[in-house]
Amino acid sequence: MTGALFFSDSVFLENSCYKSIMTSKTPASYSIVVESRPSAIVSVFEQIQSKLVDHNFGKDDIFAVHLTLEEAFLNAVKHGNKQDPSKKVKVDYSIDADKIEISITDQGAGFQPETIDDPRFGENLFKPGGRGLLLMNSYMDMVKFNEQGNSVHMVRYKEKPFLSKNKSDNSDTQN
Amino acid sequence: MSTIQPNISVEYVKNATIVSFTDEKILEEKDINSLQESIMTVIEQAEQINLIIDFSHVKFLSSAVLGLLIRVSKRIYEHNGRLRLCNIDPKIYEIFKITRLTKTFDISKNVDSAVKELSHVK
């Protein structure tokens, strides 16, 4: 229900995107509504990738965001919208110098993430599916679903190369 | 000897069949399905296959490919064959580690060591 309201209140057109920048300190935020088919994420990622590069995010960050987007988007299309071509997926994201935040919302009934089995143990290790959520949790610093379970909000903070290489020397980092 | 099929190339070295993924990114469902079909055909054509999957071109994959590998490995074991993966990019190896698939799959550094390991064991 929440998802349906979320969409009906929106004025987004298919594959449209708009950008809002409030002040110089507010992160740029974007919202895109795309068709519910797996390949629709390609152009969304390309857009996000160019913004990550603009904000000096490194290769590890880009790899992590790419993987997470693929997994979350496929979940939205397959498990959320159940491959229904009349449904849409909404991707909201914002980027600043330190982090990227992404929300992916589908028009499905939602699910409870705690009911998903851990794919790393027992028989699950030999099952073909069920690893998307684990990868999302592993590659993002925060992953949170709404109560209905049809919208996931994820945050990744930029890797700090100086800090990770030499923890005792923070003098070169900008914060 | 090398034959090109959509998304894979197949090569035969000693007693091993080497399948290389030729795409840098493996994401699209239809690509994954066609990959699976191609590999399953290679498995069915051989008796007790020693299959090496070479990832040297692959820079990015998602969990859907892990599912493909599990289905392939099951088919191979049903046919009493053996499977080794090799040339996995460190970033992709990390995905295998996170999902604990490093415990399920036999992974070699490169094709040469995979061929050696397959000729020693059994």
Short note summarizing the structure:
Chain A is built from five helices and six strands; from the N terminus they run αββααββαββα. Chain A is an alpha+beta fold.
Which key phrases capture this entry?
heterodimer, A: 175 residues, alpha+beta, Heat Shock Protein 90, six-stranded antiparallel beta sheet, 5 helices, 6 strands, disordered N terminus, disordered C terminus, B: 122 residues, alpha/beta, Transcription Regulator spoIIAA, two-stranded parallel ribbon, 43% helix, globular
Overview of the structural elements:
The complex is a heterodimer of chains A (175) and B (122). By secondary structure, chain A is of the alpha+beta class. In chain A, 32% of the residues lie in helices and 22% in strands. Chain A has a 6-stranded antiparallel β-sheet, covered by helices on one side. Chain B is α/β, with parallel strands linked by helices. Chain B has a single domain, classed as STAS domain (Transcription Regulator spoIIAA, 2-Layer Sandwich). In chain B, β7, α3 and β8 form a beta-alpha-beta unit. In chain B, α1 runs parallel beside α2. Chain B is globular. The mean pLDDT of chain B is 91. Chains A and B meet through α3 and α4 of A and α2 and α3 of B.
